[in-house]
C-alpha cells in the first residue's frame, strides 16, 4: 500500500472540474442577465441559484469553493454556500423520527436509503 507523503491535504487536491464547469455556469448567469436587460425588466433582486450534486469524493466542495470565489472576485456577486449536511437532524432527533415512522425507509437513516 502506498503511503501519502506528509503534504497538506489542500495541496493534494486535484481540481479538474472548475476549468470546465465555471465557464459554463458563468455563461448561464450572463445569458440570464442579458435576457433581463433585453426585456427591459428592472435588474432582478432574485437570487441565481445553482444546485450541485454528486457522490462522495467527486469534488463538489472544491468546485463550489472555486465557483464562489470566482463569482465574488470576477462578477462582484455575493454568494452563499450551503451543504445538505447543514440541514440534517441531530442524531437523537433522527432516531426519534425513525422510531415514529418505522415503515418509512426514507427517514430511517441520514441520506439516501
UniProtKB/TrEMBL annotation:
Question: Taking every annotated instance into account, which residue ranges of this chain make up the domain SRP54-type proteins GTP-binding?
Answer: 48-103
Which key words are in the record?
GTP-binding, Nucleotide-binding
Membrane-spanning segments = none
Which GO terms label this protein's molecular function in UniProt? GTP binding
Q: Does the keyword tRNA processing apply?
A: no
One biological process term from GO is: SRP-dependent cotranslational protein targeting to membrane
InterPro entries cross-referenced by the UniProt entry: P-loop_NTPase, SRP54_GTPase_dom
Q: What's the protein here called?
A: SRP54-type proteins GTP-binding domain-containing protein
Amino acid at each position: 500500500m502506498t503511503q501519502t507523503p506528509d503534504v497538506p491535504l489542500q495541496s493534494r487536491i486535484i481540481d479538474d472540474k472548475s476549468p470546465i464547469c465555471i465557464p459554463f455556469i458563468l455563461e448561464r448567469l450572463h445569458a440570464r442577465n442579458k435576457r433581463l436587460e433585453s426585456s427591459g425588466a428592472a435588474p432582478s433582486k432574485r437570487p441565481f441559484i445553482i444546485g450541485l450534486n454528486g457522490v462522495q469524493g467527486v469534488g463538489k466542495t472544491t468546485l463550489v469553493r472555486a465557483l464562489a470565489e470566482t463569482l465574488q472576485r470576477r462578477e462582484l456577486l455575493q454568494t452563499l454556500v450551503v451543504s445538505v449536511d447543514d440541514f440534517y437532524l441531530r442524531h437523537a432527533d433522527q432516531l426519534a423520527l425513525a422510531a415514529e415512522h418505522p415503515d418509512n425507509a426514507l427517514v430511517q437513516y441520514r441520506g439516501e436509503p
